[in-house]
Amino acid sequence: MALTRINNQALTNVTSAGLPADSVVQVKSYTMGDKVTHPSSDGNTENDVMSGTITPKSSSNDILVMVTIHSGGTDRYLTFYLYRDSTKIGLPSARGNRTPSFMTNASASDGASGDEYILDTVSKQYLDSPATTSQITYKITMNNTANDSRAFYINATHDDSNNTYTSIGQCTLTLMEIAR
Fold first, then answer.
1. Which CATH number does the domain housing residue 119 bear?
2. What value does the mean pLDDT of the chain take?
3. How confident is the model at residue 144 (pLDDT cuts 50, 70, 90)?
4. Is residue 116 helix, strand or coil?
5. How far apart are the C-alpha atoms of 108 and 126, rounded to whole Å?
6. Angle at the Cα of 88 from the Cα atoms of 118 and 94, rounded to 5 degrees
7. Distances in Å between the alpha carbon of 149 and those of 35, 74, 97, 102, 160?
8. Total number of domains constituting the chain
9. Backbone torsion region of residue 91, taken as left when φ is above 0, otherwise alpha when ψ lies between -120 and 50, otherwise beta
10. Is residue 109 part of a domain?
11. What is the rounded radius of gyration, in angstroms, for the C-alpha atoms of the chain?
12. Which tens digit of pLDDT belongs to each residue from 34-88?
């Protein structure tokens, strides 16, 4: 049987430095099924949703961040932010009074019957270039940008009753190191 080699190295000796560009070096996946409530009415308070860590093998590698969030509430204007350690990342350039966000759930329902049973899903990917081999914490936070007193929920509907027609969710955060 022939010996397979990558970059002229035996398979037992391959390191992340020997992988071709765009190869996946490592994957860290985190899930969160707890209900998180955001009761703030000031629009300036962020609540943590979930976080995860990864330690890059090379400072030249990128980290692909993949996020899926389930949220509920009526007349909700949720803004989600992505942090690398203590720095917000993945934001668009500011334009006027608009709120730059990593992703949003602006389900502006009219309070119609049934809205309290809706569980929305938002997801986004972001390719980060952290330029480090130190451990990084990626964190998702949420904020009520409508500045009102309504509560918002992660992984639960506004109703959140114990009925078969009431959905619950599980958020995911996946961190994938990509060789460069």
1. 2.60.120.1340
2. 83
3. confident
4. helix
5. 26
6. 85
7. 18, 11, 21, 23, 18
8. 1
9. beta
10. yes
11. 20
12. 998 876 555 667 888 999 999 999 999 999 999 999 988 765 677 899 999 999 9
pTM (two decimals): 0.83
Whether residue 23 is contained in a domain is answered as no
Under 8 Å between Cβ of 32 and 38: no
How many angstroms separate the Cα of 170 from the Cα of each of 50, 52, 70, 151? 11, 15, 7, 19
CA neighbor of 106 nearest in space, from 125, 81, 124, 79? 79
* Residue 83: per-residue pLDDT: 98
Q: Are 78 and 153 in contact (CB under 8 A)?
A: no
What are the pLDDT digits (tens) for 77-112? 778 999 999 999 999 998 898 888 898 876 545 455
Give the DSSP letter of residue 162.
Answer: S
List the one residue out of 28, 27, 64, 38 whose CA is nearest residue 155.
38
Residue 2 lies in a domain: no
